[in-house]
Design goal:
- With 228 residues, this protein is of the alpha+beta class.
- It has 5 helices and 13 strands.
- Strands 1, 2, 3, 4, 5, 7, 10, 12 and 13 form a 9-stranded mixed beta sheet that branches. It has a 4-stranded antiparallel beta sheet with strand order 6-11-8-9, with no helix packed on it.
Amino acid sequence: MERRVNATATLASELAGRFDADGFLFLRAAVPEAWREPLRAAFDAGELPSDKWPVPRGEDWRHAQVDLEPVVHDVCRLPSMLAVARHALRRPFFLAQVEGREPMPGRGFQRPHRDGVDPARTHMLSALVFLDPFGPENGATQVVPGTHAGAGLARPAVENDPDAVTFRGEAGDILIFDANVIHGATTNVSGARRRSLLLSYVDLAHEESFRATRDLRGVRMEIEVFEA
């Protein structure tokens, strides 16, 4: 099934310029405080062991199936995120996936990489919605600004990039980024909880290919299309 929603939010010019230059935006306290505990509860209730997913997941991470939770979809429809997606994708787009992820104690390192399949244009945005305080000690995300477009696309994804930015923040913060920007995860050396929601907005032109793999990715929700 498919549900269509108007995405009317507009990104402020200052934020639009920052996103265009860096390939990401860091939205502090974007999730209302009243939603945060229900989101953590949804994560914990939806956690599934690696071998319970259609395709087994990496054992360095906890994974949670949360895509049928109303409060999770409320987050995915936040005007602040839809405004970024509308600005970056510039065409109708859809919510392709949302799931919970958390690095295990002493694990979770993810090599810097890009997720984009079409470097010529932005076709997908990813967002990390943080449900716990986070920083370099418990597996924070890193990005290399400006590596999503133009000359930045020629830059290789390497470990210990001197320009990499490692984020620190609180529950309710959101990092939203172009799939072509170099990003990765650090190791959860402290063992402290670092639950997050990972979601993707994708250009509607790619809907067929994403629909074909939804069962393999454990996606249960109906397709939600946002009219840009």
